[in-house]
Amino acid sequence: MLSVHNLCKAFPGTVAADAVSFELPSGGSLGLVGESGSGKTTVARMLVGLVRPDSGTVTVDGRVRDPRERGRAARLRRAREIQMVFQDPYVSLDPRLTAAECLRAVLRLHSKDRSRVPVLLDQVGLGTREAGARPHQLSGGQRQRLAIARALAVEPSVLVLDEAVAALDVSIQAQILELLAQVRRDSGVALLFVSHDLAVIRHLCEETLVLHRGRVVESGPVAKVLAEPEHPYTRLLLGSVPRPGWDPAEVVRLRREMEASEVF
To answer: What does the UniProt keyword field contain (predicted)?
Structure first.
């Protein structure tokens, strides 16, 4: 469904993406992981067209996405291919619109059936009371559910989630992750999850891609990569997660190991 080939992007003083390539099948789930500054969010933004790549291609269902293609029809078609859910839904939702009005506006823009609003709200666990509420009247978890419903309204092939549960408390995180898993099972949408939280990736994704300084350093099934990491950077990520018996000195040793591997 989604094929990314040699995606590159440089900003002054840094390379955000260096020949990033991967594939995501229909109905699949892939996690992009790495520390802040690893390039994962830049890759996500290039997929949806918010950042233009310097080189490389993004192909959805056999069609190459050309960011130079202009016109309203082209923009709407690209929006129907890939949708994005951001970390903070509050800044991505129109504060003037109720939840129902927000969804109706999206459906109207894409010439979709506006009677689907109650179905979309129900799909993400929102009811009649939330339908008439504006973003400031909803909780953080409810706002994120609305953002997911808005993205699903156009029936995208791929849903990109950029740290979509990072701002939520643990109990609400679990609810949203279960919601996303259910959405994937019901609709067949492919999920690309961007996160620094390895527990989230382990729970939601089948495959993972580890990014370090814009480069893919390791990839494969989540169970294998997180249980038997081969690259020093992946081992550092795993070793940095606090747990019973966790020793900060081990993190220092792993970082030195990684730095030594980069030198040689």
So the answer is: ATP-binding, Nucleotide-binding, Transport
Residue 247 has pLDDT above 60, yes or no: yes
- The answer on 90 and 51 residing in a single domain is yes
Closest C-alpha to 21, from 226, 219, 261: 219
- Identify the three-state secondary structure at position 163: coil
Residue 48 CA to residue 253 CA, distance in Å, equals 38
Residues 9-36 have pLDDT tens digits of 999 989 999 999 999 999 999 999 998 8
The pTM of this model reads 0.87
Q: Is residue 28 part of a domain?
A: yes
Given the structure tokens 């550092």, which residue do they identify?
236
Tell me, yes or no, whether 131 lies in a domain: no
Q: Say if residue 92 is exposed, middle or buried (CB neighbours under 10 Å; 0-12, 13-18, 19+).
A: middle
Q: pLDDT value at position 111? A: 82
Alpha carbon distance 148, 179 (integer Å)? 10
DSSP state of 115: G
Distance in angstroms (rounded) separating the CA atoms of residues 42 and 53 = 9
Instruction: Pull the structure tokens for residue 256.
Output: 């030195």
In three-state secondary structure terms, 136 is: helix
Q: What pLDDT shows up at residue 104?
A: 94
Q: Which domain holds residue 150?
A: 2-96+139-227
Torsion over CA: 233, 234, 237, 238 (sign): negative
How many CB atoms within 10 Å of residue 115?
9
Domain of 40: which CATH number?
A: 3.40.50.300
